[in-house]
Amino acid sequence: MASTSASTPTSPSASTPASPSAATQKTRRGRNRLLPQWMTGFGAQVIAGLIIGLILGFIAKGQNAGLPANEDSWLSGLLDGVGSAYVQLLKVMVPPLVITAVITSVANLRKVTNAARLAASTLIWFAITAFFSVLVGIGVGLIIRPGENTSVDATAAADPGSTGSWLAFIQGIVPENILGLGAKLSDSGDSVGLSFNVLQLLVISLAIGIAAVKTGPAAEPFLGFTESLLKIIQTVLWWIIRLAPIGTAALIGHAVADYGWDALGSLGMFVLAIYVGLAIVLGVVYPAVLAFNRLPVAGFYRRVWPVTSLGFVTRSSMGVMPVTQRVTEQRMGVPSEYASFAVPLGATTKMDGCASVYPAVAAIFVAQFYGVQLDFVDYLLIIFVSVIGSAATAGTTGATVMLTLTLSTLGLPLAGVGLLLAIEPIVDMGRTAVNVTGQSLAATVVAKRAGILDQPTWDAGEGPWNADAPTHENPQESSRDRADQLTSAVH
């Protein structure tokens, strides 16, 4: 024993490193800071971006006031360009992240015989939060009565360019090609825009992952490559996420300058009703769900803040999806094997803001505006469409399409959609913030109930978000070891 202890300090794997670790260097830098870490962390930087964006937005709006209606100032154009570029950077990482994460997840979950129970629980909690969210939307619409307290001109009514249908869910699931890639000709006809259907990518990745597992040893090199590629993608993704304060400033500045806040005049009560409903979901429904599952309410919102704030300014669940997954894993303690399935699915089908609160309030608005009386069966239909309809419109994104599905189910005039288009960007900001928050909440709740929530990771996520921290506390812990832990937890 004596010889063993004497030789320990000279061993290459001894606890004394040859050079300071990244964590040690970060600690030393932190000691030299004049400001506390909570004032210089990632969350504080995003808040600073919001404040700076508001200031720049009001400046740009002032500059636009002296220009023709079809022209923007240089500052407004700069904010639009920078903000759009940031959202595009986030979106470009979604396809490779979904493919590699889902395939790796399927491979790591091959030992879990009850993995289907996790998927079923995820869908159930999606439906539970959607159910209470649509109840909130109906209640707010009936109390505030936005359709009767509006001065919007009836000539603004116009049929929407696209409508939702119950067949869209099947069409959205069946892949059009191996990449889930879609193409659309621009209105001018001089360019073609490409887009990825994330639901199709999810189905394709699940199929490839299952096939690789069934193939056996011959597929091990492929699975090893996929897992390695996932780590590379996550590294590149984090570089993009670190630009969030700049993107936030540009996006909120562009919103203030160009989204036409003056449009609130005639539709002010409708916007108020939407944001009251969204606030109740964030402030009452979600906290009740967290408390029911014995999760700290304040702790959850501190952890999910980067997701909520980016959802508000980007207005894109797909664009925020990489951030949602990283926060859900790194700050909530949801195992990556489960999060890589739940988060992409949630980003496609779970939309408490767009598919529950908004269509409920908007349908009541249209009914009140046209003087149509809704009965008890109509409200049941609103609830049904809101809980189930988000999946039915998964192949055609957008709250407007979801609204057309609700109106057509109720037999209300589809032209009423045109009444609300003027304030679409304004309400979309709040809707998306609720959407992405609910996506992270559902994954966390299911992980908690299944007993797979990593408590040390949850505890470590209480403080400021560390930009340099690994996804898991122990970076040498392999994904297959995590799968073994997940197996025992589920059993």
UniProtKB/TrEMBL annotation:
Compositionally biased intervals (Low complexity): 1-24
MF (Gene Ontology): symporter activity
GO biological process: dicarboxylic acid transport
Alphabetical list of InterPro entries matching this protein: Na-dicarboxylate_symporter, Na:dicarbo_symporter_sf
TM annotation in the entry: 38-60, 85-106, 118-144, 194-215, 236-257, 269-293, 376-395, 401-423
Pfam family, one: SDF
GO cellular component, one term: plasma membrane
Keyword terms: Cell membrane, Membrane, Transmembrane, Transmembrane helix, Transport
UniProt feature, compositional bias: Basic and acidic residues: 470-484
Cell compartments where the protein resides: Cell membrane
Main location: membrane
Membrane topology summary: Multi-pass membrane protein
Region (Disordered): 1-30, 457-491
Protein name: Dicarboxylate/amino acid:cation symporter
Species lineage: Bacteria, Bacillati, Actinomycetota, Actinomycetes, Mycobacteriales
